[in-house]
Prior knowledge:
5 helices; alpha+beta; globular
Amino acid sequence: MGKIFDEISTEMREWISAQKLFFVSTAPLDATGHINCSPKGGDAFRVLGPHEVAYADQTGSGIETVAHLRENGRIVIMFCAFEGGPKIVRLHGQGDVIEPGEPDFAGLQSRFPKLIGVRAFIRVRVTRIADSCGFAVPLYAFVAPRDVLDRHCEKLGPEGLAEYRVKKNRASIDGLPGLKSVSN
């Protein structure tokens, strides 16, 4: 049976840190808009406190999470145990987007390894922490992280990344504004 928690405990923080994959879901306010669910991996997630988390939002072909957060702030992050005992943890909350040059960017960046393709950090004030059984989640063995994104970003270089973001990260698929740095 699922349980609601008052805060992210040390034990939960350690469990979250051991997961190799997490999922981020957001939605626009418009009922006809597209709901988004994005898988995330690598060393890109941090628990900042008992009610605060952040992850490195790396360059990609879409900008749905950023656009939805700018519109309404709603977000849920889900972790599933693919190894060990079955467990799912969901962190619901209000997220904000911190882009390069904004006041909190450098502080967040210092908490993560150097990631070439970071376009922003997503910081979430967690308002609901819940787990559930995960009995139906299959067991998978982790083989290795992928380095395709890092190699792609290295190949593009700073100018190429900027051009890519202008093309791909200006607006969501529903036309909501994306990255501030390219939306002007």
